[in-house]
Amino acid sequence: MSAIREFRIHRFGGAEVLQADDVEPSLPDASQVLVSVRAASVNPVDFKIRSGKYPAVKEDRLPYTLGRDVSGVVEKCGAQATAFKVGDEVFGMVGISGGGYAEKSVLDQKAIALKPAVLDYVHAAAVPLAGQTAWQGLFRHGQLKAGQSVLIHGGSGGVGHFAVQFAKAKGARVLTTVSTDNVAFARSLGADAVIDYKTQRFEDHASELDMVFDLIDGETRERSWALLKRGGVLVSTLTDPSQDKAKEHGVRAMRYTVEADGAELAEIAKLVTAGKVKPHVAKTFPLERASDALSDVEKGHSVGKVVLTVE
Ligand SMILES: NC(=O)c1ccc[n+]([C@@H]2O[C@H](COP(=O)([O-])OP(=O)(O)OC[C@H]3O[C@@H](n4cnc5c(N)ncnc54)[C@H](OP(=O)(O)O)[C@@H]3O)[C@@H](O)[C@H]2O)c1
């Protein structure tokens, strides 16, 4: 097979360590598929890995191709990867070994789903990691149910904009914090109450919550404990919440790491096809500008997602 372009790091550091390499593509193992990538999204985990601050990716994994989710066309199937066939249009989450910022990527068949026909490749690539993080936080860990209330901190970002839409689709009452510029965007996602964290104190607008979904951490989390009703739950994508604080407030609290799950992605695809959830892509960059795209996400002000396009 001819060489493909991948964006890799050979050492940890700043934007300067990400470089284009022409390499032989990996071949799929028995349960994997090789995908010809059409688009790949950028996530905060990518710059955390690049900087060496992500615990699961250490020196022994270098050189490392960044990128945790892709959309594209199945080009080759492993002997036992019978759930998909060559030519299928798919999307999915790349494993912790990375490989999304590339012309071809290998994914486990259990990590992918058929791309919803209503989405182009760019919008499909925006879904897997951020969408499943939102889904698992709300429903697997938070066990959010119809009629319950949830405060989503950071409702305008990659994970947050999915979380607002999923929680609404579930029938929950959704409150979310965003900055002034993103108030209209958060309303367009269907949030019942949008709190501008730049000008308002969210404590003045929320109480007796069933769930806090914390995508921000720090002071924002600390100010949120008292807003939960007893028996409520605080779920974080960031650091482990204090179990002492949880006990004090009579709530459950946890941090989790998203897991790839193709069956769940197919459930999300159904909501997308039904028009209940729309991935928002604020910016696209060609793969060649992967470093600029990553720097953009690193600023921490993404509205929805940033996606790389592969010609
Ligand atoms: N544990 C896991 O498996 C997992 C999975 C995915 C993501 N994560 C982590 O979860 C976090 C969110 O991910 P993401 O992809 O959604 O990030 P993102 O796309 O960069 O979005 C971050 C959002 O937070 C908003 N924000 C910043 N400060 C805020 C504040 N004080 N209150 C409310 N909103 C605020 C930003 O908008 P403004 O600046 O305009 O306010 C931006 O929209 C990241 O730290 C990421 O690493 C963890």
Q: Separation of termini? A: 18 Å
The H-level CATH homologous superfamily of the largest domain, spelled out, is Medium-chain alcohol dehydrogenases, catalytic domain
Counted beta strands: 16
Q: Roughly how many Å is the radius of gyration? A: 19 Å
**H/E series:** EEEHEEEEEHHEHEHEEHEHEHEHE
Bound molecules: NADP nicotinamide-adenine-dinucleotide phosphate
**CATH class category of the largest domain:** Alpha Beta
The amount of helix comes to: 25-40%
Form type: globular
- Helix-strand makeup class: alpha/beta
State the CATH topology of the largest domain: Quinone Oxidoreductase, Chain A, domain 1
Mean pLDDT: 98
Summarize the structure.
This protein has nine helices and 16 strands. With 311 residues, the protein is α/β, with parallel strands linked by helices.
Question: What does this protein structure show overall?
Answer:
This protein has 2 domains: 4-127 and 279-309, Medium-chain alcohol dehydrogenases, catalytic domain (Quinone Oxidoreductase, Chain A, domain 1, Alpha-Beta Complex), CATH 3.90.180; 130-255, Rossmann fold (3-Layer(aba) Sandwich). The strands form 3 sheets. Strands 3, 5, 6, 7, 8, 15 and 16 form a 7-stranded mixed β-sheet that branches. Helix 3 packs across helix 4. It has helices at 44-50, 121-125, 128-141, 158-170, 183-188, 218-222, 243-249, 262-273, 290-298, and strands at 4-9, 18-23, 32-42, 64-65, 69-77, 89-93, 104-108, 112-114, 149-153, 173-178, 193-196, 209-214, 228-236, 252-255, 281-286, 305-309. It contains 9 helices and 16 strands. Helix 4 links the parallel strand 9 (149-153) and strand 10 (173-178). 25% of the residues lie in helices and 30% in strands. The radius of gyration is 19 Å and the shape is globular. The protein has 311 residues and is an alpha/beta fold. The structure holds NADP nicotinamide-adenine-dinucleotide phosphate. Residues 43-45, 130, 133, 153-154, 156-160, 177-179, 182, 197, 215-216, 220, 237-238, 257-258, 297, 300-302 line the site of NADP nicotinamide-adenine-dinucleotide phosphate (NAP). NADP nicotinamide-adenine-dinucleotide phosphate is lined by residues 43-45, 130, 133, 153-154, 156-160, 177-179, 182, 197, 215-216, 220, 237-238, 257-258, 297, 300-302.
